[in-house]
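for the writeup, i need someone to sanity check this before i put it in the appendix. the sequnce is what the collaborator sent (i think, or maybe the updated version? ugh). structure was predicted straight from it, no edits. if anything looks off just tell me and ill rerun, i have time this weekend
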Amino acid sequence: MTLTVLSVAYSLAPVGPDAVGGAEQVLSQLDAALVAAGHRSIVVARAGSAASGELVATPAPQGIIDEEQRRAAQAAHRRAIAAVLAREPVDIVHLHGLDFPAYLPPPGPSVLITLHLPLGFYPAAALAPARPRTFLHCVSAAQRRSAPAEVDFLPEIENGVAVEALAARHGKRRFALTLGRICPEKGFHLALEAAARAALPLLIAGKVFPYPEHRRYFATAIAPRLGAGARFLGPIGFARKRRLLSAARCLLMPSLAAETSSLVAMEALACGTPVIAFPAGALPEIVEHGRTGFLVADAGEMTEAIARVASIDPEACRTAARARFSAARTVRRYLALYEALAAGETPRRPTA
């Protein structure tokens, strides 16, 4: 069966292989896999995105992102989706954005909604859409367990990373790394605190998006702590990320949000680098305490774990990543789900 899949990104974030957000990286993986498998892939995403299939770009926001810009971006997505559906026999519409209720298309082809963020981030009504043939699923068991009992999800599909492409090895150097969107819930200020106490230099890689609260967080909680012991690198591409992840003593993840998954933690393990993380959301499903890293309660325990990180065997990290976090397996499950939904089937979670 040859499919036409319309993938729709969050209206305010660019998509591509070097995207910062996990949802955008997963969409990019699936877009590339669809094209490689001979399917038709159409991607609706903001300008500045890159796609293996056909990119339908909507205008990128300019300057600080406020409510007016959000509404304009969502309206542009609605128009773009409607235009594609009017001209193409689409089999599946796959929505990835937090704001999907603003551009959920009218009844027509089956819609799959991947909930990439903590369920509390979505309006309650979003988890029970009235549109027929509309299916939701989570990206981890921990995320699904947080759902109200009455919410009907498809089986979750765990995220994965390109473990083979991350197999390159570099000698370990004396620094810790933290990586991701620079925003309050990621807890980068706590990584700075822990690394400073451990007297271990810290590199921070990521992007400060033009949201007022993100800019304010960077200006007040991050920038004043930068200096000889801590550097901000900004956004980095895949090759540099792989090099830094391979060379780092450890990856620090002091997230204050209930993480639904963590591609960067998986990537670090694939590079042979232990992860020291707060046990937030799905992180205990990724980090095996004492084997591939440490789960800690606060910045003080993170400091103590940094001192013990040499006890973690890099090869154990790589082995775990190869066995558990392959993007190839994730892609196979999505492609099988696309085919089932296009055929009118409704996969269900097995009952225990």
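The longest helix spans residues 67-87. The first strand starts at residue 4 and ends at 8.
thx in advance!!
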